[in-house]
Specification:
D-Maltodextrin-Binding Protein, domain 2; 5 strands; about 5% strand; 2 domains; three-stranded parallel sheet; about 210 residues
Length: about 210
């Protein structure tokens, strides 16, 4: 990883006032490996096949920071090789709050107060989807997407088969995930107020909380 110092990295980048999740994650990851954000050159790269494949194969960047299925696809097509894999426990152990929440269903406090029933319905629908996915096989899940590209379809089936725990089994927030999310957000510089309680952002009356 130390060889990335002074190199160009392709990643989804925000704007002058805000950073994308992937940029925050990559900066935290580099810091954990002794590289500061200003010691690499950031190159805006779209999170799609054309953006990832084009940036790496053309030599526009020295490395790309991407999610699945791009990572598997790029290595399978021999466009590049893995420098680091976040599914590796040794890699994850270096990142503060590595078990943080990757995505969440979000709305404003005003919307919750004005239409709690609609929020409850949305959460229930998501819960049903997650519970169905937990029981279904990878092929059954991907077939629901009705993808026309056979290679893309097989790539996604491959990824889900190798990472069966990629999606939560229900909508409940885990206390461990909540704590990890606060730790990650502080390490990434998103939460700067030490006394802020991240639990105040969770509408547990709809989703519920588990250990």
């Amino acid at each position: 990883m130390s060889d990335l110092k002074g190199r160009s990295i392709g990643v989804s980048i925000g704007n002058a006032t805000s950073k994308t999740y992937l940029q925050h994650l990559m900066e935290t990851f580099l810091t954990a490996n002794g590289i500061q954000a200003h010691e690499v050159r950031w190159v805006p790269t779209a999170q799609n096949w054309d953006g990832q494949f084009g940036a790496l194969s053309s030599g526009t960047v020295d490395a790309v920071f991407c999610e699945e299925p791009f990572m598997s696809g790029l290595t399978r097509k021999k466009v590049g090789f893995l420098l680091s894999d976040f599914s590796d426990p040794k890699v994850m152990a270096k990142i503060p709050g590595a078990g943080h929440l990757r995505a969440s269903l979000t709305t404003s406090a005003e919307n919750l107060a004005q239409d709690a029933q609609r929020a409850e319905t949305m959460v229930r629908m998501l819960n049903q989807s997650l519970q169905w996915m937990a029981k279904a096989g990878a092929k059954e899940i991907i077939n629901r997407l009705d993808l026309q590209d056979k290679d893309e379809k097989n790539e996604l089936i491959n990824v889900l088969s190798r990472h069966p725990g990629m999606y939560a089994r229900d909508v409940r927030f885990s206390r461990r995930q909540i704590e990890a999310t606060a730790l990650f957000m502080r390490a990434a510089g998103i939460l700067t107020e030490a006394s802020f309680d991240i639990n105040t952002l969770i509408a547990a009356q709809f989703s519920g909380v588990k250990p």
